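haha ok so turns out i had the wrong file open the whole time. this is the CORRECT one, sorry everyone. sequence first:
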Amino acid sequence: MTALDPRHSQLWQLLDATIGTPATQTLFDMIHVDDALLTAPVASVPRVLIAQAMNMQLFAKNLDAVPEGKRYVNAKLAAGEKVVFDHGALRTVTAADTGALPQGEAAFKRILEPLGFAVAAVYPLARLKMTGRAYCHQDAPETVAQFFVSELHVDQFSPAFAKAVDAVVSSSRDPLDDEHQALLARLAAQRALPLNEAFKLLPALVACFAVQHDTPPLAAYETLLAESAEMAWIATEGNSFNHATDRVPDVIALAEQLRAQGAPIKDKVEISSAGSVRQTAFKAAMVERAFKAADGSVVKKVVPGSFYEFISRDWLTGEGGTRHLDLRFDSGNAQGIFKMTAAQAPG
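then structure:
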């Protein structure tokens, strides 16, 4: 059976209505989309297509934030290849006061579960005083990118640190209004939404992956940085994608190739304890961010932003000889990859 032309699919229709035809074409040119997701338009949009449309936009947002990642992807496209979007990662925090935003993982659980994602595994990140959770799509686990949602535990840090966290995130706004939350509840119950409601919900979902709090106080940022590079990152980058990940056949060979080209690639490839998942990344983009000084003025500093990651996953053989992709993560790998945002530039 011939695959449906992407331009005639419901996924295209959904993206076209929210970001326009040129941007939609760019996403389809750049990201591999499984034929199973290229279905003809129907009255209600299945949750898996809303999830895929959101993921594709989030991948593009990450590239806009990571120039080295964009250069890599552009070179890949010039060679006639596409990206296989494996997963995106974001950081959250539990604090005494997160403003209008739900605390920690809950801010995204309320989004991901109605879209069809479920927690596949929990990964302790003890060295970072965090916990990671892998959200995998129940309808298309191997073709819809996963989410790695990490949560920083403020109660494991000093009282001064906790006070600084509140000073940063207590001003958080919730990008989802009552109507959006009602649409998510309907999506959870029905596993689909009428087209006009899907059009309304999608931009709000994408907007959740951003900074929701006010410009952070410089003194609070410096207190956070002294104890946790990860929380300092949240202070400037919020709930933006910490990284997006390209699934490649041989990450070790690719890392050697990129290193030889002078690309800012991580020195070491992280290998899972089982050996079946291998990861590396470009070093984080350095970005200029604003801070509030004690006298009320605004000062700017160069800090680590987001980065672009690479992963190779082995195929495993299960009972009855069935083959499946190893979609697991690894606590050691994750903590090694997180170091990409730890380095600070002067200023």
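The radius of gyration is 20 Å.
again sry for the mixup
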